Amino acid sequence: MQSPIIKFGTDGWRGRIADTYTFDSVRRCAYGFAQYMLQIKGTGETIIVGYDRRFASENFASAVAEVLAANNFKVLLTEGPTPTPAISYSVVANRAAAAVNITASHNPPLDNGFKVRNEHGGAIDPDGLRQIEALIPSDSTQIKSIPLEKLLSEGKVEIFDPAPAYLSQINHLINLKPLRSAGLNVMVDPMWGNGAGWFNRIFSGSKTKITEIHDQRNPIFPEMERPEPIPPNINPGLTASVENNSDVLIIFDGDADRVGLGDEHGQFVDQLRVFGLLAYYLLEVRGERGPIVKTLSTTTMLNKLGHIYNVPVYETGVGFKYVAPKMLEVDALIGGEESGGYAFRHHVPERDGIIAALYLLDMMVQLELKPSQLVEKLFEKVGAHYYDRIDTHLPPGKRSGYESNILSAAPKTVGGLKVIDIITIDGYKFQLEDGGWLLIRFSGTEPIVRVYCESTDPERVGPILEDGLKIIGIQ
Predict the structure, then answer these.
(1) From CA 179, how far away is CA 159, in angstroms rounded?
(2) What pTM, to 2 d.p., does this model score?
(3) Is residue 191 pLDDT above 70, yes or no?
(4) Helix, strand, coil percentages in the chain from 3-state DSSP, rounded to 5
(5) CATH homologous superfamily for the domain 386-472
């Protein structure tokens, strides 16, 4: 049987467990990454290896450690499932050269993944990912691997706890005392993933009460299609939040690098509004200044905030493989994307759902407002914005036909609004006359086409999305 070709998408490589995602494939990935690191760093460097709560993730992580150590790298292997941001920060805290993270993040239960991070704890840029791909062998017959037990006994692999350094970094980034004494009633839904237990640890013994649901390991992710903090996956959490009379619902995705938000009424606050809130918090509440980096799939509220506070706004392709390098280049205050991942200055250039959630709680405490009131305050500054997205699974062999439909469509109007520009940095973005937009983009990690839009008129959202589906040829 021929080994599958491995391609790195928006954020690493992902595949179906026992289909393309096998121990053989993971070892091939680890070997390709080892050869890449040997070329850019040489031997003897330290590499962090972590993993999530998906099926057999700890075993896949051990296989990675066995290959990396056999190629003369020192490996620090996390002692248990660990949030992606803690793994990323461990690179910096331990002066490591890179990290490998076994996680499929928000993907369906049957998937797993292989993420790589550089010496900054951030995503490796597209050129680096292409180099890694080119170094992945077609089979595993020549890959050297040493049993983990032997590596542990020889000290070439060490089991370590990433929590102390990461918790210390949290205390460096934010003053937790006001949050701990605020007496908030916070519900946390870690979606059966790596974010479980962290808020209980941070707020232990404080007046602020933390209630968690979906906090055990369960790789089939009951009550949701996938551990992605968007509707309908969040609906059980929103219901539980109302029943608990919570002030706010914090939702983490499977590896806790993304955050979702539910307000005090059990209503979801979409990712674009959360990005706007976080930027407003840093600029207004904390009085900080610096560039904003956003992907083309996220909100124009950031452009308006940039204008109001006189800070530059940079737009990139979708994925932190574009966002992270740009953040480092311009020393950005905040960077983020439509999926609910946000990164911050003075930290690693990597999505951090835990820090983002703490910033949102701090905004509530500092302004003495509930989440719905925070959104109203943001809208007072930039005007109301409305967003939605439709994901459609692609039948095998249909993508090229759909792309041809998009290229040949050349619509003059979308949702009754004139198209004033088309941007093709990453997908097909139709800029509309009212300042809104429609984006059609094929996922870099799954066989899915996404149709997104944002408008200042809530009545326009549905028609814009419908026209997007017609442009693709789905309707």
Answers:
(1) 33
(2) 0.94
(3) yes
(4) 35, 20, 40
(5) Alpha-D-phosphohexomutase, C-terminal domain (3.30.310.50)
